[in-house]
Amino acid sequence: MKVKVLRKGNATKFDLPDYMTPSSSGVDLRAAEEKVIEPGRWALVGTGLYLEIPVGYEAQVRPRSGLALKHGVTVLNAPGTIDADYRGEVGVILVNLSDSPFEIKVGDRIAQLVISPVARAEFEDASGLTATERGAGGFGSTGLK
């Protein structure tokens, strides 16, 4: 499957997104702008990438584990969804959960992008639902084990 990529601005300085290892499920997204995110704040960071995702697929923007562990920075709406019909710039909403400002430089790897197939459901009205042992239990109702 091919995904067309249009690069603008600083993104023209970078290679196309690519998988770092043969078993990688995501590619890194790089910042195309400089920004400082203060502690407890968030910001939209542009990548300079515009995608043409094939119909039947989506792109998911996910955090990078190294940024989360080392700096307390993650993707605020993880995973962010990019639909196949979206043609705007790919942006990443980063949040700084640390107690120090986080500086983003052009070219920094700020998130991962995963392309996934989309299953479309057909919803229908129902007068009831099939009973299960779990029922309406949620939010930890199955215990800690």
Automatic annotation (TrEMBL):
Gene: dut
Sites where the protein binds substrate: 64-66, 77, 81-83
A GO BP entry: dUMP biosynthetic process
Reaction catalysed by this enzyme: dUTP + H2O = dUMP + diphosphate + H(+)
Protein known as: Deoxyuridine 5'-triphosphate nucleotidohydrolase
EC number(s) given by UniProt: 3.6.1.23
Pathway: Pyrimidine metabolism; dUMP biosynthesis; dUMP from dCTP (dUTP route): step 2/2
Broadest EC class assigned to this enzyme: hydrolase
Organism: Acetomicrobium hydrogeniformans ATCC BAA-1850
Presence of the UniProt keyword Zinc in the record: no
Cofactor(s) the protein needs: Mg(2+)
Alphabetical list of CDD domains matching this protein: trimeric_dUTPase (cd07557)
Taxonomic lineage: Bacteria, Thermotogati, Synergistota, Synergistia, Synergistales
